[in-house]
Specification:
Structural class: alpha+beta
Number of helices: 1
Largest sheet: 6 strands, mixed
Strand content: 15-25%
């Protein structure tokens, strides 16, 4: 089972790594995007949740959304290097995007929860986000990120 993270923006993303440009011979990067366009895509079920109409699926270095499930406070220092670089890449992207473009929206859902309604809206001020305060992703949570809430 996997995490699915959907991100919505008001403007189409540019200068990011898209899934279609990845080589099957190389490992996935820490953060990449896949535009959700087809009605059969699971993400289309969630499009009405978002104000931003450009919907993307987020991929991590695990090849799915599972690489974003990260809690640095729970790992011993000697084990931290063995875990995904994706959470830091996601935090950096969120901070950069919101600083430049304003609000960003994300919906997280566990694979078995597809089709179920969101349970919570979470507002996050990106000024306080870093690797140590990284959000603990929870299924069926709708996250809104902005600078200076």
């Amino acid at each position: 089972m996997c995490w699915y993270l959907y991100l919505a923006t008001k403007e189409p993303l540019k200068d990011v790594l898209f899934a279609g440009t990845l080589s099957p011979e190389t490992p996935p990067p820490p953060l990449y995007f896949e535009k959700v366009t087809e009605p059969e895509d699971v993400g289309m079920n969630y499009k009405p949740l978002f104000k931003g109409q450009n919907l993307y699926y987020l991929g991590s270095d695990t090849g799915c959304g599972c690489g974003f499930n990260y809690n640095p406070g729970e790992w011993p220092d000697e084990e931290k290097d063995a875990y995904s670089e994706s959470p830091a890449a996601l935090v950096a992207f969120i901070k950069s995007y919101t600083t430049e473009h304003g609000e960003l929206e994300m919906y997280a859902i566990w694979e078995d929860d597809h089709g179920r309604e969101p349970v919570k809206n979470v507002l996050i001020d990106v000024e306080n986000m870093n690797d140590e305060t990284y959000l603990m992703i929870k299924s069926r949570h709708f996250y809104q990120f902005s600078a200076n809430i």
